């Protein structure tokens, strides 16, 4: 049986009064029904059985301003009273224009144009097609290859899954994937840095590997290098060593290869700056965003494009050869614009940075006595805890045990929802949990989250260590 997908965490075991359904909705599991959420407010999910659970993972790093915000709800209603839908082949709307202008005001880092679609997978596909079109417009039709990284995740459609390295998701689709893709080693120091190797040496080795891969494929055939500035759910909040992404930028520039940074999970303030790449001394050609863009109030994702890429189209076909029926959907744009205005007005990105320091301190102090905690890593309000059977050898738990899933279930029953991951190390073995609470989370809630997580971990250590 295939390992469990890290982007689809196992549903916490049902309570004594589970919510079972014989209806027609296709849930992610046919064997276990999800819990029914009747309402949500702030950092809390209110279940149909009367229990309240702290949403310590923001769904999947989505709910950045918390649940139930009346200001956003009013913005959606107001837009519905104006225009709910137009087709972008012929029309635009003030709210879509305002959202793009609000995010890219002043053309930050040379990012000039924004495209709004319905999901992270969609904008990754759009970025791949745009990157290909960029080279096509420049009379380089032989560029058909993408390079990404192992233990990465970029989406669940066929092309976006192809550049991903989430092995569990690929099992049923072997042979269906886009073939012109290869993967290099991730900047995952806890597992991939060699004994005696410094951070600088580790970075240099990874960059040599990247350049060697370009040369192996033939740099004239490579479209782009695709990377998450901070690797998200698949490996658990992997922060690259200093100089890695800026070094990758230089290698790409050397061969005319585009750099696509996937900030679907780690962007929109999640790591303490609006763009995650801001902290890495690098400027990408294309950036993708989703989750925090709409904060969960609407299905929306964004692709932000550098002037360099836009100019290639201006000087060529003068059109983006791509489009979706629900592109720049007015209702979704209204929700996202309201979320982004709140984010900026209330200084929530800076609050995320500051509360992230609180969360890190709590995690390191609360989990200090947990023998199964091998690594604690992250930035902003985006943190992961990797579990090991032996902290000295870094031996993993047997995948059949499902250690992270069991920790998640105990934590849930104690009132805190965390995000589990399996296959952390290489797609087959390794366990971690991810924390990504709303930027509005309180210090008291963070203390409860960390204390509860500690209790959940210790309960499983007592059984399995």
Automatic annotation (TrEMBL):
SUPFAM superfamilies linked to this entry: PLP-dependent transferases
Region of interest (Disordered), residue spans: 1-22
Classification via InterPro entries: Aminotrans_3, Aminotrans_3_PPA_site, PyrdxlP-dep_Trfase, PyrdxlP-dep_Trfase_major, PyrdxlP-dep_Trfase_small
Record keywords, A-Z: Aminotransferase, Pyridoxal phosphate, Transferase
Coiled coil: none
Top-level taxon of origin: Eukaryota
UniProt GO molecular function: pyridoxal phosphate binding; transaminase activity
GO cellular component, one term: cytosol
Cofactor(s) essential for the protein: pyridoxal 5'-phosphate
Pfam families tied to this protein: Aminotran_3
Family named by the database record: Belongs to the class-III pyridoxal-phosphate-dependent aminotransferase family.
Protein name: Aminotransferase
Upper classification of the organism: Eukaryota, Fungi, Dikarya, Ascomycota, Pezizomycotina
